[in-house]
Amino acid sequence: MWGRLSREDRILLIGIPILVVLIVAGWFIWHATADLDDIEARTLAVANVATLTRQHIVIVVIATIAVMVTAVPTGVLLTRGRLSFLAGPVTFIANMGQAAPVIGVIVLLAIWLGFGTPVAVLSLWIYAFLPVLANTVAGLRGVDRTILEAARGISMSPAQVLMRVELPMALPVIMVGARTALVLLVGSAAFATFISAGGLGNLITTGINLYRFPILVSGAMLIAALALAVEWFGRLMEVVLTPKGMK
Amino acid sequence: MTKTHQDSTFQAGVDIELQGVTKRYSSKGEAAVAALNVAIPAGEMVMFVGPSGCGKTTSLKMINRLIEPTSGRILIDGEDVTDINPTKLRRKIGYVIQGGGMIPHLSVGDNVGLVPKLLNWDKKRIRERVDLLMDLVGLDPVHYRDRFPRELSGGQQQRVGVARGLAADPPIILMDEPFGAVDPITRSRLQDELMRIQSDLKKTIVCVTHDIDEAIKLGDRILVLERGARIAQYDTPESILAAPANEFVEDFIGSGSTLKQLSLRRVDELDLTQPPTAHIGDRVAEVEERVRAAGETSVIVLDSRERPREWLSLRQLRHADEVPTPTTDLQTVIDHRSTLNDALDAMLASSHGGAMVTNRGRYIGVLSYTAVTDYVRALNEQASDEAETSGPRASEATRTSPLTQESSGRSSGAGA
């Protein structure tokens, strides 16, 4: 498997985890040695940071799963002959979802539906739906027509063609969309704190409100480290899930 | 590499009949296929030929309903299949396309075994079937089963495509320009192998090609189509070459129809000569005596498994005690089922005025240059005799087969 990776893939697959470990280890060393005042010490207590990180990850994971289980089937439907006329309108709506600023959507939805994690997940879902949908459609459209016709010709049913030929062949492109969505979500999940859904964004707002730079920078760095880790995970999934014989 | 297959392993072909099959892409414009009537007899290989855009591929794809006919009926083995579920229909119809159409993320073995797997065969049976078919198309299963399609050459992928088409043992095989994407040498070899396989299996094969030479070589019958899939002529290759139905067919066949007829004859249909042979390691003195006694000056060298290895003149043997193991590769060996056209090609490379003929690798005799030229002369004499006696071409075409009658709706004033 390793042998068929590009040079770039190899560097990123090894380099990113090293970078993440350096950032996190650096933060722990700084945390253990720095001279923190009372507020900083309380906010940056390892237990508190761990809780915020967990909240952050939970929001991202739920939103990602929600996006994948909705956007991929939508993409599949939009590439079936009968429904393909919907591709334009649906892509347009999905585009609007991504174009709207997350912070606006998240706050408006919270006013309408109330505060808390579910609403944060909903706004992130709206935001990350498009890249996965667009890549699913592009991936499926990119599959060689002659192979699909051959598959039908040798008596595979439409469902078998989809599951055994189209989706596996489109998977690399779909995974790029999923990875993009994941990274977008880690960053955007920082806004969840505005509607009391927790997450590492909490550190950033606290840092700004109380004028405590160590807290602000800690929050930003940990979110960056998390985004990198997620990017790495996405790449790993891409490599693992890309069918053999396709690269 | 090759094995004989019992009848029980493969089922033979069945009849196909197209009745008024029509395809229109828009309600106005010209029909892509206008009311095509063709009967394809069981166990025959029928070639659909014609210029691009004539509707030959559309006609083919309507048989397995990759394209739905606008109207008309399709009968397979007497049963009307026009309205049955297409997926179910295709279980009975193998499909082979240009380039093989392999699924890239499945191994070669999985590609070949795909249809049996869809039919829920058990693993062991699929495995045996895959190995049998890969053997049949000349790919060593041990070596190639677990490779991926992209690791194979174009010719090998095409072989896998043929194996996949045969996998579930359908009585009918459709082929769409199967050898269009490979080089001429590989193409000729693949054609020979397809003919060998077909002579064992007797499937009903419908094959689309734009290459008239391929059609002549492979086809039991040739369907020449004009624009709109109108039948210009439907007949045996011999009759089409001898008596093209109209100017369109004549143009399509092109020049050199005598040479083309050489593609219709197999080496084993002509008499082979039996010049002296010797085995590697025989004593030269004894061999020389035998050759001279036969009034010859050269000898064919065989190895211990009766495979021809070299064609030596006595002069070349003079300095040895025993017949030596040859060092060079032979160029002038042909299979007994090769066409005379290919044989002639091989002979031109030989300095002995002939080509050594093998049957499954074993030497069986020599096809001499004179045997081929005598045959060509006979063809020409026959052709000129016929021209004198039978006059206009149309009358000649009608006596060839009952099927010709059916297709004699051939348009009269069709130019290319």
Defining key terms:
heterodimer, A: 247 residues, mainly alpha, 10 helices, 0% strand, B: 416 residues, alpha/beta, Rossmann fold, 6-stranded mixed beta sheet, globular, disordered C terminus
Structure in a nutshell:
The complex is a heterodimer of chains A (247) and B (416). Chain A contains 10 helices and no strands.
Topology:
The complex is a heterodimer of chains A (247) and B (416).
Chain A: H1 7-33, H2 38-43, H3 46-78, H4 87-99, H5 102-113, H6 117-141, H7 145-153, H8 158-188, H9 201-209, H10 213-241
Chain B: E1 16-23, E2 33-40, E3 45-49, H1 56-63, E4 71-76, E5 79-80, H2 86-90, E6 93-97, H3 108-112, H4 114-118, H5 123-136, H6 141-144, H7 154-166, E7 172-176, H8 184-201, E8 204-209, H9 212-218, E9 221-226, E10 230-235, H10 237-242, H11 247-253, H12 257-261, E11 277-279, H13 284-293, E12 298-302, E13 308-313, H14 314-317, E14 333-335, H15 340-348, E15 354-359, E16 362-368, H16 369-390, H17 393-397, H18 402-406
Parallel strand pairs in B: 3-8, 3-9, 6-7, 7-8, 11-12, 14-15
Antiparallel strand pairs in B: 1-2, 1-4, 4-5, 9-10, 12-13, 15-16
Helix pairs in contact in B: 5-7, 7-8
